[in-house]
C-alpha cells in the first residue's frame, strides 16, 4: 500500500480527540524475504518524509517476522477501545472461515488488511492482558483478518470493527483515492521482466480416478501456457501422459508423492530450471501472472511462496504454504530441503504441513502472497478480490472450473500493463 496524504488526513481526524501524530505509532508488517524487506523500508522512508513535511515527530517501527498484529497497523492512542478498518463481509458461509455465522454471514465484518487497520491503545492493552492470561489456542490459522476480528469481538464482549472510509484499496491514481489515507499502488506485482516460462517446471499431482475429469480441465485452461509440465499419478497413462512415481495414491495427504516430485526436480530426468511449481489437478492458475510475480524474487535465495497458513502459532507452531493454491519453490530451497534429511512420516501425511515443519526446522521463512487462493472465488469477500489480480484458485466443487478460469484468470490485461509499474501491495 502507498500511504498517500495519510498524515494530513489522520491529523484532521485525530484533532477531534485532541491527539496529534506524536501519539501515533505506525507498524509496518513485512516478511523476511529480501523483496519484502526492501518494500517495507521504502514505505518507512516515505512515511518519514511525509512526517517531516508536516514537521511532526512520529514513531515508525519495522518488523520482518510473523507477529500477532500483522499488516500496516496504526496504533491510535485513544481512550476508547477502537477497532478500525475497511470492512469486509462474507456473502455466504465459507470453509475458510469454518462456516461461521452461517445463518447470516454478512452480519460479521472483518478488516481488509490491504487497506491498513487500527487499534486504540486501550484495546491493545486489553488484548495484551487477554493473551497473557489465556494464550491463543486455535490450531489452524487460515484467514488471519477474520480470525483477528473474531478474537477481538469475543462473542460480543469486545468491540466490533468500525468502518473508516479513509482506509481504502482504490488505485492511487483514481479520483476517488484523493480523500483516502491508504491506496493500492497496483493490482499485481512487477519488478522487471517476467520470469520466462521455460524457467518454471510445473508438476501436477493427480491420480487415476481423476484422469478423465480433472486433467482435461487443466489442459483446456492453464496448462497450454506451460513450457515444462509433467503429470504425476499412481498410474502411467501414455495418452495424457502421466508418470507413475511408484507412490500409491492416498485419500488424505500426498506427502510421499510430493517428496518424489522434489527429488525428480533435482534429477537428470527433467530440464534444469530455477523454479518449481507444484499444484493439484483441481488447481486453476494463471502462469503469466505467476511469471510476473516471480520477477520480484531472487531464485538464488531460499524462496517458498504461496498462500501461507499456520498451525499452532500461539504455541510455538509453524507456518506452511497451503498446497491447493499452488506451492512455488526456488531450486535452492528444494536443494536445502532434501539435503536436510526432511522426509514424510507416512505417504499420506499432509505434504504442505510436513514441508512447513521442515522449513521451520531449517529456519527458512515461507513467503505469503494473497494472490494465491486455497478455495474458490465464492469463498472470498467480493471487496477483497476486487483489488486483486489473482494468481490461483482451488477446487471444482459446485462450480464450472472452465468458466471460473475464464472469468478470473484468463484475461492478462493487468499483467501486460504492469510493465509500467514496479510497486505492489502484497
Automatic annotation (TrEMBL):
SUPFAM superfamilies registered for this protein in UniProt: Nucleotide-diphospho-sugar transferases
A cellular component term, taken from the record's GO annotations: endomembrane system
Membrane topology annotation: Single-pass membrane protein; Single-pass type II membrane protein
Transmembrane segments: 6-28, 60-80
Positions of the Fringe-like glycosyltransferase domain: 194-399
MF terms in GO: glycosyltransferase activity
Pfam families: Fringe
InterPro entries named in the record: Fringe-like_glycosylTrfase (IPR003378), Nucleotide-diphossugar_trans (IPR029044)
Domain of life: Eukaryota
This protein's UniProt keywords: Glycosyltransferase, Membrane, Signal-anchor, Transferase, Transmembrane, Transmembrane helix
Compartments (UniProt record): Endomembrane system; Membrane
Chain coiled-coil ranges: none
Family to which this protein belongs: Belongs to the glycosyltransferase 31 family.
Entry protein name: Beta-1,3-glucosyltransferase-like
Source species of the chain: Sinocyclocheilus anshuiensis
